[in-house]
Design a protein that fits this description.
By secondary structure, the protein is mainly α. Helices cover about 60% and strands about 0% of the residues.
Length: about 260
């Protein structure tokens, strides 16, 4: 079909990349797809009319202001290991798998660090939503972004000789996985939760009950929680979950993470 050939054409790809249209277009697709899924099989009622417009504006500010600023600051402190060519020339799929294993292992420990008292203020904004749905996950302070960038930027050294699209795939996958784990979705899969973080798995971590929010720190893979003793089985949580931090904090302090 002509339209499909046009969508897959090199010319369209060049226009999208040259004019920095990929992220805005992906965001539009995410808004439509994620919201539609939540409407079809919702876990709880979500006041979209109240939340969605403001959260879209907030996500845009985070994406275009805070993420570039955090990346600049992270580059000043991150360690980029020098890897041998034998590693850098491994098959692309293997490099991508290693990237996620290394980065996610580091992200698990950064996440646990941010729940310690001296660092909690950096992470408060992320836990402040009282309604969990796919766009709640964008709430992240500048300081949290700086810290969470570090393991992934360290792991991205594996892409030293990788094709350009690996960076696009990695960026896109992080966005979609962040949406996924926060989604308001009635869906369960015990076998998948042995490997990956799912919405119901991560929603336990967002509970305002400290006994639950100090568990299930996994960002992508659930295996780290099982290995290091921070796992809570969603099937064992019988009471309905409530979310939020239980206190009023000025927005500027939440966003800055101070």
């Amino acid at each position: 079909m002509d339209w499909l050939e046009w969508l897959l054409s090199r010319e369209l790809r060049q226009v999208v990349l040259q004019h920095d249209l990929f992220i805005p277009l992906l965001f539009i697709v995410r808004v439509l797809a994620m919201t539609a899924l939540e409407w079809v099989v919702p876990a709880r009622e979500v006041p979209y009319r109240t939340l969605l417009a403001l959260d879209i504006v907030g996500a845009a500010l985070v994406g275009y202001l805070m993420i570039p600023a955090a990346r600049y600051l992270s580059e000043m402190i991150v360690i980029h290991p020098v890897l041998p060519e034998a590693v850098l020339t491994l098959p692309t799929a293997m490099l991508f798998a290693f990237y996620y294993l290394v980065g996610d292992f580091g992200a698990y420990w950064v996440h646990r660090l941010l729940h310690l008292t001296p660092f909690w203020r950096m992470h408060k904004w992320h836990h402040s939503p009282t309604t969990m749905y796919w766009l709640a996950g964008y709430r992240t302070s500048l300081t949290q972004l700086v810290f969470f960038n570090l393991p992934w930027m360290f792991a991205s050294s594996l892409f030293g000789m990788a094709p350009w699209w690996m960076y696009v795939l990695a960026l896109s996958s992080h966005m979609v996985l962040n949406d996924w784990m926060h989604m308001n979705l009635t869906w369960r899969s015990n076998w998948l939760e042995w490997i990956l973080v799912t919405p119901r798995y991560h929603h336990i971590h967002h509970s305002c009950d400290l006994a639950l929010s100090d568990t299930n720190f996994g960002v992508t893979f659930s295996i780290w929680d099982r290995l290091f003793g921070t796992y809570t089985d969603p099937d064992q949580v019988k009471e309905p979950l409530s979310f939020g931090i239980g206190e009023k904090v000025p927005l500027i302090r939440l966003v800055a993470g101070f």
